[in-house]
DNA sequence: TGGTGCCTCAAACGCTAGTTTAAAACGTCT
DNA sequence: AGACGTTTTAAACTAGCGTTTGAGGCACCA
């Protein structure tokens, strides 16, 4: 078993367990047991539990943000010759990337949204600060394109509405499995990632534009 | 120190600390220390930490849900003679009640929204199930009025959009203090509860109606 | 005054957590 | 084959957790 193998197995196990039970409620013993590695391996390879949490985020977020950044640059290029990117297209691009930029099934995206939800509801802002520092620029780039897509919405209100949208996405996907049960019971219809994003798009677009 | 005094002091301390640091990260020792009572008092008066968490929710939610239920009944009465309650009015009523049904400043509402966020991102659905069981009927009553306010939105989509809205609210108010910092820096404008709900209303209304 | 419930208190219990240690195993190069 | 840096292993350590215990305090009524 090579080094990277152990590291990857730990990351895989941690990703799933953190999403399932939260950071505090997931013990290193549970992670290493699931990964089939020794308990001490986490502290050996990552240094601490906190560092492991950051590593889990980094492994997912870095490819996604690189892909998003490239795509946004492409879109900026298109609009340099006048016009702006439609609101729907911006969100479609982002969601398609979030769901499929890793080559694996969108199940991982779900797992990761759950993680994000827990990161945000976490008190200590170590993690939040770290996320903002590392991935803030892409977010601001997205926001700039957004501003040109809805020029009639004042920047201040747009800022808030983007956060509202983020909340809708993360919160919903965080509570997926319970919502899945409700939805199945009330509407006899199961829930897929594609299905949810399909529902999300009109809501977010309507919300950003504002109503009333 | 009378009994109810100790109980209330524990609830006060727990409410703040749970919101600040989460359920798992808040120890009974921290709670009793802040409350100025003995460690064993929690297990004596509430039985367990889990029961204390439920008690915190109950103390807040019961008055709110009673007030909301009464208000909804009143609205139903108005519409019995034909017509339906406008979307804006439904949400205005709900938000006003959430912010002011306790006689104290809306700061408590913020604390409570943080709690809700943590309850939802929590893995064990003991709490979620308990909340649903106790306060589900009011929610369904609200949903029924909503359905009549936007008859052109299919029930399935409305169901999702309501959850998206809930997510927007809880997520935003959960991350308040960090958003406060950003907003102050970028827009030189501080953030109040009234201000946020004012921003939320058009977003939620637009989102529920849907755009695109 | 003595007894009866309710409450408080300091101390301890059992347990699990993250982390550390030192020896053993492994792979690689001379 | 032997030495060396890296990785794995089992075991222990320290700390903090929720909970329990039994003695003590306090108000109230006979």
TrEMBL record, chains A, B:
Q: Which UniProt keywords apply?
A: DNA-binding
Q: What is this protein called?
A: TetR family transcriptional regulator
Under the heading InterPro entries, the entry gives: DNA-bd_HTH_TetR-type_CS (IPR023772), Homeodomain-like_sf (IPR009057), HTH-type_TetR-like_transc_reg (IPR050109), HTH_TetR (IPR001647), PsrA_TetR_C (IPR041586), Tet_transcr_reg_TetR-rel_C_sf (IPR036271)
PROSITE patterns membership: HTH_TETR_1, HTH_TETR_2
- Coiled-coil zones: none
Q: Which stretches make up the HTH tetR-type domain?
A: 4-64
Q: Which residues bind DNA?
A: 27-46
For the keyword DNA repair, the answer is no
The reply on keyword Transcription is no
